[in-house]
Design brief:
- This protein is α/β, with parallel strands linked by helices.
- It has 2 domains: about 5-140 and about 315-405, 3-Layer(aba) Sandwich (Rossmann fold), CATH 3.40.50.720; about 145-305, NAD(P)-binding Rossmann-like Domain (Rossmann fold, 3-Layer(aba) Sandwich), CATH 3.40.50.
- It is built from 15 helices and 15 strands.
- The strands form 2 sheets. It has an 8-stranded mixed sheet with strand order 3-2-1-4-5-6-14-15, sandwiched between helices.
- The protein is globular and about 65 Å long.
């Protein structure tokens, strides 16, 4: 794909952010914070002016006084942070109530999940922001994924309790009663977190995954578990005997078939549990997203736990790990500007989603059928020695903007 002189000129304008803002997440049941006082102190020592919305870290165990002691300016509300800061950050997606607060040219860094949120992308493009999808920026996997798996395992066992409509079975059994029989679908970062927690609690565990090497590693680390390749496993045969099924599979957004059909759900015993940690539409036919305030529902006699932001329930631990993982990205963007930061880190480059009104996210282009431009082209760095990174997903698109084709 060619790069024109105009493209190079556009990319050569290095975006500089002088003020950094930590927003209070406002999604229902979201208690994490994207930066703790430790990260704020580091940025302040770097010479950055940091603004933190009052109460941003309260539910994660960090008070306004802690942020102030670290050198932050405490703002009364998110509105002031949006108005003041060149670079704004939060954990979850931008809520509709925040759309009018976004300013043209702002750097926005959060979990956007753009392929699944067309309206959010429309706003970011219309506002001509520089937006990064945090979920695609992790070289070694997101701590949020580990947190989702570990906490999701607990939530699945909680949903199995009698007071929630479940079978009332305890993880490792009591006296002569048998332990919970659980299936974990997927053994990526989310799945491994769930497997580790369930194994330590003494659950009778079957793990289903794609790769032999992954299953061999799981069997070696967790003696006694049962493993099956997904192409050999028949979920339809396994599910009637399972007390708990945890879905940790990242399901393609353009998939046309369910992994688990309504008929398969109906084959499970009354009071068994499905905990959909991945929360991808189109994977489980009986899925509908729930919240921490109202986390469970029953379909076909099976209790479903489908909260979309499970890590929010363990906000203290997750915030510490997540903020530490993102700090290097924040420092690089603030010190080097967007273009240079994307030269140095391929995972940051692949997470660039919108730039000056242009879509720069391949999966979103492929799923939503809209044109895009590669980040290195719009930034004018295509001829540089770029830090490599694999594609974030298998979805591809050759639907380029005409001026970048």
């Amino acid at each position: 794909m060619a790069t024109t002189a105009n493209d190079e000129g556009r990319g050569s304008t290095m975006r500089e952010a002088k003020t950094f803002g930590v927003l209070k997440d406002i999604k229902n049941g979201e208690y994490r914070v994207v930066a703790t006082p430790a990260e704020v102190r580091t940025l302040v020592e770097d010479g950055v002016e940091v603004h933190v919305a009052s109460g941003a870290g309260y539910k994660a165990g960090f008070d306004d006084a802690d942020y102030a002691a670290a050198g932050a300016i405490i703002e009364d509300a998110n509105e002031q942070v949006w108005q003041t800061c060149d670079f704004v950050t939060k954990v979850k997606e931008i809520e509709p109530s925040e759309y009018d607060l976004i300013r043209e040219g702002q750097v926005v860094f959060c979990c956007i999940h753009p392929a699944a949120h067309r309206e959010e992308v429309d706003v970011l493009l219309d506002k001509k922001t520089v937006a990064f999808s945090a979920e695609d920026s992790h070289r070694f996997g997101s701590p949020n994924c580990e947190a989702a798996g570990k906490a999701g395992a607990f939530m699945g066992l909680w949903a199995l309790m009698s007071n929630n409509g479940g079978l009332g079975k305890f993880a490792n059994g009591i006296g002569p009663s048998e332990p919970v029989k659980a299936i974990v679908c997927g053994a990526g970062i989310v799945g491994r977190g769930a497997i580790d927690t369930l194994y330590r609690l003494g659950v009778d565990l079957t793990v289903i995954a794609v790769h032999d090497s992954t299953l061999e590693a799981m069997a070696e680390k967790y003696p006694g578990i049962k493993t099956m390749r997904s192409e050999d496993a028949s979920l339809a045969e396994l599910m009637p005997d399972a007390d708990l099924l945890l879905n940790c599979v990242r399901w393609p957004k353009d998939a046309t078939e369910y992994m688990i059909t309504r008929e398969m759900v109906a084959s499970m015993r009354r009071g068994s549990v499905i905990c959909d940690i991945s929360n991808d539409f189109g994977c489980i036919e009986t899925f509908r997203e729930t919240t921490h305030d109202d986390p469970i529902y029953v379909e076909e006699g099976v209790v479903h736990y489908c909260v979309s932001n499970i890590p929010g329930a363990i906000a203290g631990s997750t915030s510490v790990a997540y903020a530490q993982a993102l700090l290097a990205h924040f420092r690089s963007i603030l010190a080097d500007g967007v273009a240079e930061a994307c030269v140095k880190n391929g995972f940051l480059r692949r997470s660039l989603t919108c730039y000056d009104g242009y879509l720069t996210h391949e999966e979103t282009s492929g799923i939503q059928g809209r044109p895009w431009v590669r980040p290195e082209v719009i930034l004018g760095i295509a001829d540089r020695d770029l830090d490599p990174a694999p594609p974030a997903t298998k979805t591809t698109s050759d639907n380029y903007y005409p001026e970048f084709a």
